[in-house]
Write a structure and sequence with these properties.
- The protein contains one helix and 35 strands.
- A four-stranded antiparallel beta sheet has the order 8-9-10-11, with no helix packed on it. A four-stranded antiparallel beta sheet has the order 12-13-14-15, with no helix packed on it. Strands 16-17-18-19 form a four-stranded antiparallel beta sheet, with no helix packed on it.
- 56% of the residues are buried.
- The chain starts with a strand and ends in a 5-residue tail after the last strand.
- The longest helix is centred in the middle third of the chain and has 6 residues.
- It is mainly beta and 484 residues long.
- Keywords: Guanine-nucleotide releasing factor, Repeat.
Length: 484
Amino acid sequence: MKVVRLWSASVLVTLALSGCQTELELTQKTFVCRSSAECTDGFECVELPEEPGTKICVESGTVLDGPDARDADRADVSDDTDVGGGPDADDGRDVGPLPEGEIVVTTGKDFSCAFMPQGDAYCWGNNAVGQLGTGTASASLVFAPTQVEVPEAKFISTPTTVGSNGKLTCAIATDRTVYCWGDNYYGGVDATSDALEIATPTQIPFDGASPVFEQVSVGQTHACALTTSNELYCWGSNGNGELGVGSVGDNQPKLPPTRVDDAPLDDQRNEVFVQVAAGLEFTCALSSENRLYCWGDNFKGQLADGTKTGSQYVQEAARGDWVYSDNVVSLTAGASSACIVGESGAAYCWGENENGQLGVGDVKASYAEPTEVEGEARFGALWVGEKHSCGLSGEQKAICWGRNFDLQLGFPNSDADTTNYDTPGTSVDEGLGFRQLAPAMFHTCGVSMDDVVYCWGSNENAQRGNGVGPSPPTDVPQRVVFDP
């Protein structure tokens, strides 16, 4: 009997597999269902023995057994089943232990992707520049999740190893190299290629062996990745110095992966970069000394230094009270806004605020220094989209604020003239708990506590992924229909 541990419906189940079946593929088709009609061919919807009323799709003929099998917090496969890779890459690099995978959803301007624990990925929505990673670019819309052409190494599916923005997606593979696909006009996929669009996941090129990466963040026209030795590399557009290499302008419109200049960090204190967040033509990074550094475009205060003067050089942001009172645990950037969350659950945001996306209680054009998000909510995590932001409360409730013209905040507008909300307030679907969110421009997606992917807001480009074509916006989370 092969023992498989699933993070599904918040329980662990033991699967006794009949016949010659030797492994169970961990994809969305094994997750929560209501009837067998929701399962892919060859699978059926069965009730969990220890969770009456909760059903999952499993391969036909599978017997479920699992008394006292509870409290799952990650997808894991025992025996010899894994997502590929290992302690050493094919080129001999030591890639270290791999983090445990989980379902992660990412969103771009008009598309969405879901990365699975076993290393596969699925995307849906607009595919005009190959942002769905299916091998072809097409003006036609993709209504439901379609499998990405995943490299042999597979992807590491965690919130810090995959990302989408604009029309670009990047992911770290189990060999610890970075793959990207989609818009290549600015070199976000491969700055050495003349192709304007690359529809197949492509390994970011290096002269010699690739560094060993552990984090990636995707801006709209550039991307950055952090190595296991805390070296930061960025590539793509450099029109405003967002790559942090001390140059800017038309003489270097796009660059292959180049190491960010970390000279401003304090060598005496062994200060290094520990997190990175790429936005629209700017980048911010958090250091081991709880300091924030930003560079690139600053027209809307994105560099958090109290000015609106851009910089192609890495520079420290304004410190403010948060530096001395709260250790930062997460950093996130959207288009022209960014936020940090402290250990206390307090959040601080800066940059563009024309739609109230900073959550600071007004719709002022911009803030050039980190400003505390208003309200009583304390956040375990926060994500910034194009014109709105979303956070998770301590009760795993999703709370969004900012632009709501397309109902992307997950609640109806109070009246026809009110489409901007400048303070966190109403939760998305009180009956749902979430563990991860992904706000885009016109829509939002999230992964629920029972591992179901939902999207809401605009569906003009089929970015909600519920199997239907363009349809009106909705504030009600729509279950993404997987049929891999």
